């Protein structure tokens, strides 16, 4: 009979841990939480103690019975859910159930908590060898968060259902994230571009190569060219002046390696370099942590625990990394002393940074055992871990100042003289980031040397608004503002898309009309809940609960009193968007009654005030002066399969679609054809623009399900001029921008669009 029971979260871990622990242990999985607040009601007794009413989750009673039966047959129970707050809550609930039985159903085994940081033989054995008691403070911190989220979500969401539309949700952190996205979009819309000019002067000296100078000063002060007139005056003046090298500054710049991965930094970098969403990053990281079948070794956990805000690395891991660097790259890539990273004061520092568990599994060695996404993420983690223990990259930077009469020009160039960590890893960049090491290759020049002017080019520019958020930059913004925690970012971003509050266009988050509406209603009636600083302070207070510095019930009381008042007021005063009817000057052409603006599933629309007797509706737009203009329906040559009426193009919640012009008598709809034939051999279908469950556009064959051909990139009805493929596709990358490329992977035809 086994002497001990080990309970983990995921069934994936059961086989791996069983292999490491041997016959004296039996391993069972809870398959996530076994208890939670009820779905159908608030589940929190609002009062002095804010007592939560947990219930066994539907379908989990059998899992719980299996764990209980196993616990009756052992001397010791090790609770080993994930080493975070959620895992602590699972452990507490399991322990409570094992101790709550009566008579023979109550286990007599000793119950311990174990934290498995890495699922390797060493990591598992170390965890079992050093068990601890359940952490009450960590559990209370998680419970306080859960109750707060329930109080907000379960009391504001029904209000949105009543006043706006069914299926909407509000959240303590999610709604603040929506506000951040909406605020940024308003900044962009209000932004007024300002014109400015720059002047580039092409020149060369005695030695090659030629280079380009930028005009920076006039009479020793920063030059400002606000319009074409200023630029042309400077251009004329420069044409009559000689270029003379005034000063040459040479210095060495050192670039230190990036920090080890925390959860948020991993999500950001995977978005920049791999195009992963935050949720996809966490899903793949979970697989790498729980264990992947690696040939004869069996299941091996390839990375340490992936939910962490710490940059700390164990001394053992650092030493192993340094040996690897020395053996594979040489001593010149190894700093004299190990790089020790200390966590910020705000970090929990409960776990190490994310790193490979063992250096005997380099990415290329295990590539054949991994799926494509697993390999890509594992390689990213591997390279980042190695890089953080390598030497600095060193650049020789040269700055040349050139005088031209009253004007001063400058060029800066950088040459990489020692690659250091860059040999292994280069950190990705957001759109707004500037590469400080970028620069021109410069010739050898001397002070006083006269240069030859090759060209003078004035360039017109306009200031740009702040960029829309990407997955990476939104996670970065949430982290910097203290909104949410690493384990919640993926869920926050997914919810914004799933609720249709935001759409992703060319990898950027853009709020929908619904998103703006919900955000404005919540900001108006729940200003404190939607306040960014308040939310960040609340997160910090909940962290203090885990550290034993705050009482969780005190935090709930302080939050709930003003929230309850706002809730009562909102029920009375919040706009009833569902039932609002805004009069317009337009009349219904079918019955002659006035047309009004109403709110529906797809946003605002024009409807006949004679509803339900007359169901006439129209799309509309507002002019800059606020005037309502009817948008004419775009007719097509296609006919309705049901009634034979012409099909018209309409805008829906998920984009444009074809609808029967006989609506509402005929409600036939279908996707819009791109006019591009399906590329599958023998297929006579056409590619239709469709939407995935998450609202992302894709293009599938009209003969589906007989033909399952589909692609994400928009097809263009033009054969490839190089390989004669039937169509091209539109692509967009941050580096090259929009382009037309061949649909075939083995064809390199590409045409940049600007």
Describe the structure.
The chain is α+β, with helices and mostly antiparallel strands and 754 residues long. The protein folds into six domains: 4-134, Rossmann fold (3-Layer(aba) Sandwich), CATH 3.40.50.140; 143-190 and 468-573, Topoisomerase I, domain 2; 195-256 and 393-462, Topoisomerase I, domain 3 (Distorted Sandwich); 267-387, Topoisomerase I, domain 4 (Orthogonal Bundle), CATH 1.10.290; 582-710, no CATH class; 713-754, no CATH class. The chain is 31% helix and 26% strand. It has 17 helices and 36 strands. The strands form ten sheets. It has a six-stranded antiparallel beta barrel with strand order 9-10-16-15-12-17. A hairpin with a 6-residue loop joins strand 20 and strand 21. It is globular, with a radius of gyration of 31 Å. The termini are far apart. The model has no long low-confidence stretch (mean pLDDT 90).
Task: Report the radius of gyration as a whole number of Å.
Answer: 31 Å
Number of helices: 17
Distance between the termini: 71 Å
CATH class of the largest domain: Mainly Alpha
- What's the average pLDDT? 90
Strand order of the largest sheet: 9-10-16-15-12-17
Please tell me the CATH architecture of the largest domain by its name.
Orthogonal Bundle
| Helix content percent band | 25-40%
Counting structural domains, the number is: 6
Flag low-confidence runs: none
